[in-house]
Sequence to fold (80 residues):
Amino acid sequence: MAGFNQAPCQGESIMAVVRRFIAGARCPTCGAEDAIALNIEGEHEWICCIQCDFREDKPKSPPATAAAGDGAVQIIQLDG
Ligand SMILES: [Zn+2]
Fold:
């Protein structure tokens, strides 16, 4: 990539941050489209806008609970 623009939403250790732009996302602050990037640094995830100073932590989604095998025991009578 040519150019080395200084984005306002760079982390402290940018080398370890994975940035993915979210297609179609609109910044709630400045309203720019396709300007929201998801940043991943280890287990820390946050979103930021490259057009303004918007930055927000992305809470980790709660762990999915298993639907099957949740307490209900079905008794099957075997005849014979
Ligand atoms: Zn913005």
The radius of gyration is 22 Å.
